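Aim 2 progress update. The chain analyzed this quarter is reproduced below.
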Amino acid sequence: MSTFFYEFSQNNTGGSFDVDDKVCHRLFVEAKSAKEARKKAKDLGVYFNGVSKGLDCGCCGDRWYKVDDSDKIDLTSISKSYKKEFLHIKDYAQYLANKYGWTTPDSRIFYIDGTVENISKKELI
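Predicted structure tokens:
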């Protein structure tokens, strides 16, 4: 069965990001379905409906949003949108980290085999 990557991008509700050994600004989770990706993300500390649960700022919105199967990352489509070729999820994650770099690391990639890769902003010379 094929696997896909799903992005969980953190909103800085209340003016800050949650960063620890599992979560940071962006998480890319490899899974067979969005349902599986949501479960993995929740196991890492991601939560949904934070405003209604009183965890997040009502004016800023929920910290995390659920993904569904239509949210799987399509690097071909993303490459066309950015007019920059992304051959691997790491390329896309690095691009976003370099552009935004709001946390350290800025992204974490959780591969289906259990490997975790941290992606931080690289200073461009």
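Residues 4-119 form one domain. The beta strands are 4-9, 26-31, 107-110, 116-119. These observations will guide the mutagenesis experiments scheduled for the next reporting period.
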